[in-house]
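Work Package 3 committed the consortium to producing structural models of liganded targets before the mid-term review. Because experimental data for this complex are still outstanding, the team generated a predictive model from sequence and the ligand definition alone, so that downstream docking and mutagenesis planning could proceed in parallel. The input record is reproduced below exactly as it was submitted to the modelling pipeline, together with the SMILES string for pyridoxal-5'-phosphate.
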Amino acid sequence: MSEIVDLRSDTLTKPTAAMRSAMEAADVGDDVYGEDPTVRLLEERVADLFGHQAALFTPTGSMANVLAVRTVVGVGQEVLCESRAHIARAELGAHAAYTGLTMRTWTTPDGSIDLPAIKALFAPDMGPFFVPTAAIAVENTHNFAGGSVIPIEDLRALKDFTVSAGAAVHIDGARIWNAHVATGTSLADYGRTSDVMAVCLSKGLGAPIGSLVVGSQDAIDESRIWRKRMGGGMRQVGILAAAGLHALDHHIERLSQDHANAALLADAIGATSATNIVVADVPDAVAIVAAAREEGVWVSAVGPTTVRAVTHLDVDAAAVRRAADVLARLLD
Ligand SMILES: *Cc1c(COP(=O)(O)O)cnc(C)c1O
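The resulting structure, written out as tokens with the ligand in place, is given here.
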């Protein structure tokens, strides 16, 4: 059998030799004491990229989302998000379990912002009657909606609304880098449309670990305390921050190759793709995943009738072409 083409997720990338060298060479210290120079460098750099005051390194994107959202949503308050948002579907209820918040959702085919729906859902604080809306969360790019990009104009309109309504915007930017490369919109422009963000180094950017909370100095000071409280205070973690810095230097612009590969795959199976994720509607997702796996093409079922394939650093165009042939045949 030919080599396996693993398109289950862009989390599957392994650190490159150059990334490992950067990790080996990293200056380290105890980051709980604030003494790891490489972590500090990464946090300052990422805060600057998004035009926010500060950032905080976390082991996972889920932890970054929980920390970020809890800076703007309190116990018994709600966050509004799209119904397939990662915070609603894929964090195992962490926001309810740790923060004690509730969620209500709007639904759009492509995961986009539906401002009229948000305005209709929005609940101002009226005292002891209704759950007040404290924040709107937007996922950019949107994972389960097929890596769709949220247009900057929509983000700006949402920000304007929340400023007047007295709520905050959280951006789950696990793949904000893909949105940036696909549109040319600067990371700082995305940053300006948010109060707080979570961004991942371990997806398309190819680092083995790491995400960051990005926001105001107050939000980050508070998140630092909660990160420790949740058991996420790490020590000589500069070896991981070095992987992140390497990824920022070398793995952002190349995301365009992943997007081209995803477009090639989408084209072959009659689907569409905005960035590095292709989702296809099929009669039986589990059956397709099993049949593809028999032929060395690994994809995932993210719903009973939804198959997802994700392109990344560790699959080249030739491998994606082979996967496209197999999937096109199976879906025919
Ligand atoms: C992967 C992902 C996260 C974070 O996931 P972890 O596995 O906890 O790092 C957050 N949001 C989105 C949209 C994601 O795709």
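Reviewers should note the following from the model. The radius of gyration is 20 Å. These observations will guide the Year 2 experiments.
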